[in-house]
Amino acid sequence: MSLHLPSLSELRNTEFEIFKFQTRVVVLQGVVLLCFALLGMRLFYLQVIRHDDLLAQAENNRTAILPTVPNRGTILDRNGVVLANNYSAYTLEITPARVKDLEATIDSLSNIIDIPLRDRRRFKRMREESKNFDSLPIRSRLTDEEVAKFSAQRYRFPGVEIKARLFRNYPFGHLASHVVGYIGRINQKEKEQIEDSDDEGNYRGTQYIGKLGVEQRYERELHGITGVQEVETSAGGKAVRRLTSRPATPGQNVVLSLDIKLQKMVEDLYGDRRGALVALDPRTGEVLAFVSKPTFDPNLFVDGIDSESWKALSESIDKPLLNRAMRGTYPPGSTYKPFMALAALETGKRSASDIVNDTGSWSYGGHTFRSHGDAGLGPVDMVRSIVLSSNVYYYSLANTMGVDAIHDFMKPLGFGQITGIDLPGELKGILPSTQWKKNSYKRPEQQRWYGGETISLGIGQGYNAFTMLQLANATSTLANGGKQLKPRLVMATQDPIARVDRSVAGAEPLDLGFKPEHVAVIRQGLVGVAKEGTSARVFAGTPYQSAGKTGTAQAVTIGQKDKYNASKLDEHQRDHALYMAFAPAENPQIALAIVVENAGFGAAQAAPIARRVFDYWLLGDYPSLQDIEASQKGLASSPVGVRRRKEDIQLTPSEGVTGAMGNR
């Protein structure tokens, strides 16, 4: 057996293989070390540098923050009567993003739960206004039976669920709707405004916001503060347990100065007639009644008004959505004369004893301005001019004063100015002046003020256009001897749990500086109107003495050569009936202004309503049904029928707006 010895070349190959192997091991070790180094660096980056950020992300994946919507505050009248509250009910809701065939799903749902066409239309409109992942109601206020029917087949409808929600309720429906207002779903414009404000977080989970009246003006107080819940969630997003929570703070209750029984009485007295009445406490500026007729039912807007109801409201010739008390502007007619007389005294243009011979007409520049059907009143002084409502007296006074002097006196009284009442949307109206006309018209011939245009201003016609709120505010200032208070509707806010009121302070009175002897002359004339003048029949037999002035204002311009004949005019073209008054005359507790549109003479149509307001406020008398019917017919006699005490009047809420969960 022979022994084979490796050759030199074979040894060299072995050494080379060993070298290659060792090199590979070293490289591999380097790669491993580099990987461990990179892994270590990555771990350091994640565990140290990004520790806080990643910890927060992990917590977010494990937890969810859910908003808790607060209960909206209640709205009450001055006596604690609830005008707006909340109740719980079940709602059938759809999240469109989770539904494959939306129309087919709604059709299938309608076989289980009745879904009217108007609800489908409303759902379609809300879907267009909302993001696709929002949960939107398709039916509200489900009954227990409907809830049970859906629950039994819920597995068939992914993306559809029943939720318990709080709904806003206006127990008296149409009553005081322009004051209370309503809430509605937040639209895109309001959503953008909220996102740009500091309140964005407070509206998470909230779908509704105040749209009109007190609901809009006191949205911040009524809304409350949204709470939050932090819950632990599973991998599928299902809540496992609650970690922390901050309860929602319910909205404040809002207490109005309004007396809802007085409000209802006035609205009943109007019947189907159009118009407005504002009654104030001249001592405080509190609004006691704020009537605009016709009214509307705010409950229609809570879930989104259907197209038929909206069309009926928006296209009605009677304009029920118009808040006539502060957005309807009217010529004040003869109710302007007492303020013109005061202007004459304060500016020194005329004394109380100056006599003007009322011949029944007054001429200027070839035009004849008529007075009371061309019947002259003879010689009249200032007091008699108010009692007998002499047009000639105020034609000549307006000519003497001039438009700018009239403007400068009437402006501090609030005519043609924003009163600052705590309701949104007030209009200024028109208090004319030479500068106003220059600003209002484009052509030079239109901008020029003509002397003849001043004459009609003296009797409350011409360009004059004021709201009943302004006239009531000016009347209250006159009753106060020249001390002006800003009108206000909200007396206090109230803690919803402790029921502790926090008064809302009114503005300090502004003294316009009228001389007491001048105010006394005007008061004497206004008392004379109720004792022997145009409203004497209406106020006969009252145990209190009132002071007031009737007015009749043109709705359309009648030519100088034409005579007014209501029977030849369309109903909406006939004269407006007005009345301004306060009582008791020597110690006023209430002041008001009222207009009954297209009703004719103020003494026949407006003054009887004022009489019942004073009887209610000063005597506690509530008119009988016969009395209300008599006022609706414009009977100017003293109250008839059986009088009732206001304490005995029971207010009945509108037919129930209740939900399956029942609580209100």
Characterization of the model:
β8 (227-233) and β9 (239-246) form a beta hairpin. It is built from 25 helices and 25 strands. Helix content is 36%, strand content 19%. With 664 residues, it is α+β, with helices and mostly antiparallel strands. α10 (260-270) runs antiparallel to α24 (607-619) and α14 (337-347) packs across α16.
Span between N and C termini? 115 Å
Q: What is the alpha-carbon Rg in Å? A: 37 Å
**Sheet with most strands:** 7 strands, mixed
Low-confidence parts: 637-641, 655-664
DSSP strand (E) fraction?
15-25%
Number of helices: 25
Main attributes of the structure:
single chain; 664 residues; alpha+beta; five-stranded antiparallel beta sheet; 25 helices; 36% helix; disordered C terminus
Spell out the blueprint of helices and strands:
Elements: H1 8-49, H2 51-62, E1 63-68, E2 75-76, E3 82-94, H3 102-110, H4 117-129, E4 136-142, H5 144-152, E5 160-169, H6 177-180, E6 183-185, H7 188-195, E7 208-210, H8 213-217, H9 219-223, E8 227-233, E9 239-246, E10 253-256, H10 260-270, E11 275-280, E12 287-293, H11 299-302, H12 307-314, H13 324-327, H14 337-347, E13 356-358, E14 361-364, E15 367-370, E16 378-380, H15 382-387, H16 391-401, H17 403-413, H18 434-440, H19 444-447, H20 451-455, H21 468-479, E17 483-484, E18 490-494, E19 501-503, E20 510-511, H22 516-531, E21 547-553, E22 576-583, E23 590-596, H23 602-605, H24 607-619, E24 621-622, H25 625-632, E25 644-645
Parallel strand pairs: 2-10
Antiparallel strand pairs: 1-8, 2-3, 3-4, 3-5, 6-7, 8-9, 10-18, 11-12, 11-23, 13-16, 14-15, 17-20, 18-19, 21-22, 22-23, 24-25
Helix pairs in contact: 10-24, 10-25, 14-16, 14-22
